[in-house]
Write a structure and sequence with these properties.
The complex is a heterodimer of chains A (196) and B (281). Chain A is of the alpha/beta class. Chain A is 23% helix and 25% strand. Chain A has helices at 13-17, 36-47, 90-95, 109-117, 130-134, 174-182; strands spanning 4-8, 24-33, 60-62, 100-103, 121-124, 137-144, 153-167. Chain B has 281 residues and is α/β, with parallel strands linked by helices. Chain B is globular, with a radius of gyration of 19 Å. The chains are: A alpha/beta (196), B alpha/beta (281).
Chain lengths: 196, 281
Amino acid sequence: MAESKPITLPLTDEVIDGLRIGDHVEFSGVLYTARDAAHRRLVAMADAGEALPLDLRGQVIYYVGPTPPREGQVIGSAGPTTAMRLDPYTPRMLELGIKGIIGKGGRGQVVREAIQASHAVYCIAVGGTGALLNRHITSAEVVAFEELGTEAIRRLEVDRFPAIVVNDAFGGDLLEAGKQQYRTSSRPVPIGGGGA
Amino acid sequence: MREIEAAAITETVARLAIESTHFLPEDVEGAIREARETERSPLGVQIIDEILENAEIARERMLPLCQDTGTAVVHVELGQDVHVTGGYLIDAINEGIEQGYGEGYLRKSIVDHPFGERTNTGTNAPGVIHTEVVPGEDLHIGFMPKGGGCENMSRYQNFLPGAGREAVTDFVCETVDLSGGNPCPPLIIGVGVGGTAEKAMTIAKHSLFRKVGERNPDPDVAALEGELLEAVNALGVGPQAVGGSTTALDVFVETYPTHIAALPVAVNIQCHSARTKHAVL
């Protein structure tokens, strides 16, 4: 089994330089959550020249809409959601300064290029492991758009949060490479769709 | 004639919502465990280990297996000799959904007007409820909290009537290839062949209530299921699409007689968190 690389957030350019597709990493530090509705709002605010409710520069965005916590829990089940739905907003989010993204599934060509151009990194957490990922979140606080409920922006503190590098800053794509490596089918790979 | 109280239906649905979202069915967990032994990719094995650990944590700490606790898909088989008393069957089910999603700390993911304001209904109701009248005096309820990521990868196409099983295989493989990591592989794949457009998709969805390893009773259809599983696992998509030999845990095919002009094929994908739970009243 591959060894995990411990990474302390925020991501520095130096850390990003050292990351390659297929790396299993463990993040400790701060993540900000955002999914569909929060992205729509953030990008609309930025485009209208309004001040954003948080400074995105250097941050890692986690695509998640958690379940409500039970009493005594900091958050409920909290696994990643499909990243491709956020593709239309991602180049703009990268312009606004984010350096890392955690989601699930592949990214479109435009986003892959934007990630490389911004010297950023896209990782997946294992989709459908929201209970396991809950154990790595030590605090959660709503910092914007509270009325969006599960889709509000939350500041999470995480401890050894497991993820896998899918798009590195050098144009690599794990889903494409992985499919090639393990494909025994003679069928041609169709163009488009949910990654690779 | 047998009477069943609407309140008993509500209570049952609420229980099924909570249990299905916290306890991975044994057959699914068993299939994932088996896949761990055959998966060729080390990263794939690591992902499978995280999935298995997740099931354990969910069970022990009463945390939902996945934060997407889904659209509540409810398949009701109502015996024709049953009389539901004290309320309307559909209302009773929706009340059960509301109760279960509230008391179980489950995520409410349903918005009312799909292309309008998209305001969250706040209760996860209404569910998507399929009712079927069957012989007898039992009420059977199948509950499936269906995640958005995998449901979004559903596909339907009608082929030339003579296109045969190859068309089915090509379409299923193409669908899985295009879906990549979005539906959270390893998958369970439901395939509906025949009927009309909505019939094909409905039987594809209903097939997902089967247990892993359960074959279609028709030997020819069962053979196609085996062929499809092999073809899909040769695609190399792998766990979470990082590359690997485990793309699907099983493929279920259901068929229905169809029109002389048609060969409808529907694919409805289930993620590895293949949550279903049944009750008989």
